[in-house]
Design goal:
heterotrimer, A mainly alpha (about 325), B alpha+beta (about 675), C mainly alpha (about 350), B: about 675 residues, alpha+beta, 2 domains, four-stranded antiparallel beta sheet, globular, C: about 350 residues, mainly alpha
């Protein structure tokens, strides 16, 4: 197991390096306007001088090596257009905590509501609760978030008698954004958990357990839930990442200064250093999430044996 | 390179708002929105400026969806960022709300006989303050010199450095020397035409006589900056609120990018008594366009723009109709259709040298277009088939009159007035025929079409002529206007004659990829004035000869000079236009004659359909607790972005009040 | 349109079975020629009894039709899909892009509330919303189906390879890590730079990374099932990998694959809405549910104009919901354990 872990982690680093190189090369294909604040007004001499100064006229491998060198010193360069000349790390330092806080809260809420929802729906399959839950899931799936988020904000704020915009010091203004962000995950967890549990409940061991006379709830939670939860687990780390990236709607609507729309903004601005750093950040979280997901699956279900892989066949 | 500014401004300005109908048409604007008046009549009129009550601090709250990328007013060239500099830094001179020049940081000025050396006396006792409002140092003449040295240092990448070239003596030479440009000798900064004679005496030496020099002083590149801080911060200058000092009506007391910015009144400012709003709170919201209106309705913000799509609903609801007013029209920016005279690939410097092939995809038959566009009847047919009223209507809606925003000249009405005669530039004799008529004339368009078809068929042009129209998908309403344009052209002229193809350009680098690279056939272009002289409106079109039969690439607009270089059917027309511009530029001592000559050239341009005047930017409808007519105003520079002089009213200004103020400014 | 999807699944299944059959024939052919001639009749009989008269697809369809609600939704969905395509050919329809001018004033008829002429009203420049919505539905559904098909086809193939061939695990995991961690927005924007935004571009960009999700899903399922006892037993008996995959694994996964496919259609439609939201969507001359909803959002707080948001949203929701319900019902029906 330990050997496997080490190997696995080593590979994660390799993945990161690959991602960095690919994104780096992709970004260099973008128009050079992204390297300047006021490209439109610069003379050709200024542009050439600027490119040279930023090392963009060097051959690609040299640029990549420089990037890695600076990266290991914690230097991701400065932003070119998002916030001119401000170090990238400085910008992210302010934004990251906000998104993490909001994302964690919403995942927490989603788990607290989504898992019971899915379990109960599976438990009472075909009954009222199942139908009600399905209705909810269907609604969340069907209506674009861009639409119902707006309704939640407009009417929610009237209901709670709070201003439209987010104010971190007022606990009531956390309610709407967190709920908005968790709705999708509640539906997602509920839907898949129900699906897996229903699949699981048709299996022979369940029939056996029932035949043995175990009571319904016990079978539901001890047997079915545990097994159905296994494939769910690997989604948890990445659903956190998706929540943070997907918070763009909510963060935009409520003026929450998080990471949500940042990536889109900087890509559109061609702020290449920013893009590079954010992609790296997301990729790191993603790669770790994949690793964690696999490990958690192995831990929860001993039948899954990734460790054997090295033995090969 | 100042042109690019304008083009950048295009997107920025549209979001930001403003603009619109030329001065002369303002009265018409009043009648255009008559329907609103009855609805808005009640309840208004009792409003008093909030500061009048003495009830303490007045805070003006707005949302913004486009963050400034820098606070550095010495390097930026976007309207968005000008707004910050304009409010926190004072200029030597400024304008009042009637566009009259007033003393600013300078109390007094004079110039020598040749009007090449200008001497300014600075106001005494002005302080630089930091982001906490604490005084740091005196504002001295040296601060203007240091700021200019900063602007002219290529290392700082100032986007406005070009505005100093050709105006301030040796500015361009100094810049090129530092940039290591080929053949440019390094010269010392002391040779540049700016000097601090003593702490309160500042002297500029100009490269050429410049009748509009004072108007230029309201530009960001003439703003001062505290020298020792510039030296200390270098490129870090003004990246945050605490890496710059302030001397204007406000200082930035808080700046969290993509969160908020708070401007607090500077009590030390010389003119603090005319700064009525104590603080300005700008809150970032990427969805400002969507939720701004609702927030303004709930009174959570004090100003927002209403898109033309929701104005109807606001105006027809008695509860909201009295909250709607408009932006003050802006007259330094306008639009016109360019025909593309170059269909050949251009190299990185936007020259044809060494390039083969077409700049436009061959499926659009660029070679066919090249012949057609050089036929005057063809251009005339398009010019007369465009019904500007219905395209402008997309932006105005029912509550503003499109006629107020349509222009038959390139130079906006009200932009330049001959001070001796009091006559507006667009009232010049040369324009008499042009300004009075509506270009849209289906019958005329069809007869031009018939003439063009006959001539062009003889030249081997195939019909319908494919006409590629491009737009930037991020610009509000542009696509819709193109859809309507296509319907008009094909409707009036027939699909046997013209096949309009509307295609989106890239959102980023639109101008580089489309206009400068000649990847279009017909394009709505825009231009903003750089100074108070009609010459500025020839910049997009005029290209100077290099003396070897080729022409300077000019401002990378329509590349009309290629009509001459390629010896096309329009060669003589373009040559004549260039000659007229050159003749006008040569007149520097007689304003009346100069204006008349420029008008001559401009009317020639329009009469021969080398470009089609379109109009000024449509004023946005707004909900605002400010009366825009109380703020500083000028057709150029940053004056109209200032909050100084504006009062915060208890309720949004109504259309009635807006028009009342507008009438006072007539 | 649904039958199209159905057909695809059937094709897949048939192809799979055909392969298995030929495999079996090969084995049979090589091993026992003599025996074959000897006991031809008995062998066939034995095969038949081994299969019983249970037909997987027959049962699935039967189970599905037992679910009356799902059948109703399926019919509704088919009706909408059908209507989407015949609408432009009906008499009296407006062109979705033509700005309708008032014949008297030549001015565009903007924001006209729904009436007899304009069933869904007009938008802020005077285009007929009814025509735009159906044109938009057409665009969006086209994108949805194309993406779902590409994802399923590529994803299943790759997923099976990934899960079953340990030698490929490294390669695929690496590919997945890379693809999954380059945010889709970057891919979309890059594609938008290279090609201008169009339906093809969006399909291309969405499927470029979308299949890997399906592949990973299949792979994980296979990891779970691969080492189950019946598969171990099968392997011990020397069953070839391909046969194992086709016979032991894929049928087991059909229900979940169907659900995923049914969900990836509305998923792609939703993605299109998102892409429009961040400003990279289709030009409005190509109406799509995404850009219609985006335009409607701006006027949402004006009750008189809210129809511009409601109609496209309702259509989108109906399409999405039907896919969800039909997909769910079908995957329930496709689960052999539910075949009673």
């Amino acid at each position: 197991m330990a050997k496997y872990l080490i190997k696995r982690i080593g590979r994660s680093f390799l993945t990161l390096a690959l991602i960095i190189c690919i994104v780096f090369i992709l970004m260099r294909q973008m128009p050079i306007e992204g390297y300047f604040q006021n490209f439109d007004k610069l003379t050709d001499a200024q542009i050439q001088a600027g490119l040279k100064e930023q090392g963009l006229l060097d051959p690609m491998p040299v640029q990549i090596v420089h990037f890695f060198r600076d990266m290991f010193q914690g230097d991701f360069g400065v932003s070119h257009s998002y916030r001119v000349n401000v170090p990238v790390t400085e910008i992210l330092k302010d934004k990251l905590p906000v998104s993490i806080k909001l994302g964690s809260l919403s995942i927490l809420v989603a788990m607290c509501l989504g898992i019971p929802l899915g379990t109960l729906m599976a438990r009472y399959k075909g009954k009222f609760f199942d139908k009600f839950g399905t209705l909810f899931i269907v609604f969340i799936q069907a209506v674009p978030a861009a639409v119902y988020f707006l309704f939640i904000q407009m009417y929610g704020t009237t209901l709670l008698k709070i201003p439209l915009l987010f104010n971190p010091d007022n606990w009531r203004s956390w309610i709407l954004p967190v709920i908005s962000m968790s709705l999708g995950n509640i539906a997602y967890y509920g839907m898949w958990l129900r699906r897996y549990m229903v699949d699981e409940s048709n299996k022979d061991y369940v029939s056996l357990a029932r035949a043995k006379g175990a009571n319904g709830n016990r079978v539901m939670f001890r047997h079915i839930f545990r097994n159905a939860f296994v494939p769910m687990v690997q989604y948890l780390p990445s659903s956190f990442l998706n929540t943070v990236i997907g918070s763009i709607y909510v963060e935009s609507l409520y003026s929450i200064p998080g990471m949500g729309g940042l990536l889109v903004t900087v890509i559109k601005d061609n702020d290449n250093n920013m893009v590079q750093a954010i992609v790296l950040l997301y990729a790191t979280v993603g790669v770790i999430g994949l690793l964690l997901g696999d490990i958690m699956m192995t831990v929860l279900d001993p039948r899954i044996s990734l460790g054997k892989k090295e033995g090969g066949r | 390179m100042k042109k690019k500014l304008l083009t950048m401004v295009l997107s920025a300005a549209m979001v930001l708002t403003m603009l619109a109908g030329c001065g002369g048409d303002q009265a018409a604007g009043a009648s255009g929105s008559g329907e609103s008046q009855s609805a808005g009549a009640s309840g208004s009129g009792e409003e008093q400026p909030a500061d009048g009550s003495g009830s303490g601090d007045s805070m003006y709250r707005v949302l913004y969806s486009s963050e400034v990328s820098s606070l550095n007013y010495l390097t930026t060239a976007t309207t968005n960022e000008y707004q910050i500099g304009a409010n926190v830094i004072d200029t030597l001179v400024e304008y009042d709300n009637f566009s009259n020049l007033q003393p600013g940081l300078a109390t007094d000025w004079s110039y020598d006989e040749a009007s090449l050396t200008w001497t300014f006396t600075l106001r005494e006792g002005q302080k630089w303050i930091d982001h906490t409002g604490a005084p740091v140092a005196d504002v001295t003449a040296q601060d203007f010199v240091d700021a200019m040295a900063y602007v002219l240092d290529p290392a700082n990448n100032s986007a406005t450095a070009g505005n100093l070239f050709g105006t301030i003596k040796n500015a361009e030479e100094y810049y090129n020397g530092l940039a290591g440009e080929e053949g440019a000798a390094k010269i010392d900064f002391s040779e540049v035409g700016v000097k601090a004679v003593d702490a309160t005496t500042l002297q500029y030496t100009l490269a050429n006589e410049c009748p509009y020099f004072l108007s230029m002083l309201t530009y960001v590149c003439f703003m001062p900056a505290y020298g020792p801080q510039l030296a200390e911060q270098g490129t870090n200058f003004a990246t945050t609120a605490d890496t710059m000092y302030y001397c204007g009506a406000y200082y930035i007391s808080a700046f969290e990018p993509q969160v908020q910015m708070i401007l607090t009144k500077n009590p030390n400012n010389w003119d603090a008594e005319h700064v009525y709003i104590d603080a300005i709170q700008r809150t970032y919201n990427a969805e400002a366009d969507t939720i701004g209106a609702e927030m303004a309705k709930r009174g959570e913000i004090d100003q927002t723009t209403l898109g033309s799509d929701i104005v109807d609903a606001w105006m027809s609801d008695p509860a909201t109709s009295s909250m709607v007013s408009m932006q003050r029209p802006k007259i330094d920016f306008d639009y016109f259709y360019c025909f593309n005279f170059n269909v050949h690939k251009l190299n990185e410097d936007f020259y044809r040298d060494g390039m083969t092939g077409y700049s436009i995809d061959e499926k659009y038959e660029p070679q066919n277009w090249e012949i057609a566009v050089n036929n005057e009847n063809f251009r005339q047919s398009i010019m007369h088939a465009i019904n500007r009223t219905s395209t402008v209507y997309i932006s105005t809606g029912d509550y503003a009159d499109p006629a107020n925003y349509i222009q038959n000249t390139i130079t906006p009405a009200g932009f330049a007035v001959d001070e001796e005669t009091g006559k507006d530039y667009t009232e010049q004799e040369a324009f008499a025929d042009i300004v009075s008529k509506d270009f849209f004339d289906a019958a005329a368009a069809v007869s031009y079409k018939e003439a063009a078809m006959e001539e062009l068929a003889a030249q081997g042009v195939t019909f319908p002529v494919k006409t590629l129209v491009r737009y930037n998908p991020t610009t509000t309403n542009w696509e819709e206007e193109c859809v309507v344009l296509e319907q008009q052209l094909e409707g009036v002229l027939g699909t046997d004659y013209i096949d309009v193809i509307v295609e989106a350009g890239p959102a980023d680098s639109f101008l580089t990829d489309v206009r400068r690279s000649s990847d279009y056939m017909l394009l709505l272009c825009n231009w903003g004035a750089d100074y108070a002289d009609p010459e500025t409106w020839t910049d997009p079109f005029y290209q100077s000869a290099n003396g070897d039969g080729t022409y300077n690439r000019g401002m990378r607009y329509a590349y009309m000079a290629y009509a001459i270089e390629d010896n096309t059917a329009s060669a003589d027309t373009v040559k004549e236009y260039f000659a007229l511009v050159e003749a006008a530029k040569a007149i520097t001592d007689d304003t009346a004659a100069r204006y008349a000559a420029f008008a001559e050239a401009e009317s020639y341009l329009i009469e021969h359909a080398l470009a089609v005047p379109y109009g000024v930017t449509v004023s946005d409808f707004v909900v605002s607790r400010l009366n825009p007519w109380e703020g500083q105003y000028a057709a150029f520079g940053v004056s109209n972005l200032r909050y100084k002089g504006q009062k915060l009213y208890d309720a949004p200004v109504s259309m009635e009040e807006f028009e009342k103020s507008a009438a006072e400014h007539k | 349109m649904f039958s199209f999807k159905d057909k695809l699944s059937k094709n897949l299944e048939e192809a799979a079975e055909a392969k298995v059959r030929s495999e079996a024939e090969k084995i049979a052919g090589i091993s026992d020629r003599e025996l074959f001639s000897f006991a031809e009749y008995d062998e066939k009989e034995a095969e038949k009894t081994g299969y019983s008269n249970y037909s997987y697809w027959g049962s699935t369809v039967r189970m599905f039709f037992k679910n009356k609600g799902a059948v109703a939704v399926l019919l509704l969905m088919l009706a909408i899909l059908l209507f989407t395509f015949i609408q432009p050919h009906l008499p009296g329809q407006f062109d979705p892009n033509t700005v309708n001018n008032d014949p008297a004033t030549y001015m565009a008829m903007r924001n006209v509330p729904p009436n007899e002429t304009f069933l869904f009203g007009t938008n802020n420049i005077g285009q007929d919303l009814w025509a735009r919505i159906w044109a938009g539905t057409r665009t969006s559904i086209l994108i949805g189906f194309a993406v779902a098909l590409i994802e399923a086809a590529v994803g299943i193939t790759m997923g099976v390879l990934w899960g079953y061939l340990r030698k490929l695990d490294f390669f695929f995991t690496e590919l997945y890590n890379v693809l999954d961690n380059i945010p889709q927005t970057i891919i979309l924007i890059l594609v938008a730079y290279i090609l201008s935004p169009s339906v093809k571009t969006l399909i291309f960009a969405m499927s470029l990374t979308g299949w890997i999700g399906m592949a990973r899903f299949i792979r994980n399922q296979i990891l779970i099932i691969r080492d189950r006892d019946y598969n171990l037993a099968s392997r011990c008996l020397g069953t070839p990998t391909r046969r194992l995959v086709m016979k032991n694994l894929l049928p087991y996964l059909v229900s979940v694959i169907m659900l995923r496919m049914a969900l990836s259609v509305p998923g792609a439609i939703g993605n299109e809405v998102f892409v429009t939201y961040i400003g990279l969507g289709l030009p409005t001359s190509t109406p799509s549910l995404g850009n219609l909803i985006d335009a409607g959002r701006a006027v949402m707080m004006n009750v008189s104009q809210r129809y511009q948001l409601i109609y496209p949203t309702v259509i989108l929701s109906i399409v999405t919901i039907s896919f969800y319900i039909v997909g769910n019902a079908f995957s329930d029906a496709a689960d052999p354990k539910n075949h009673k």
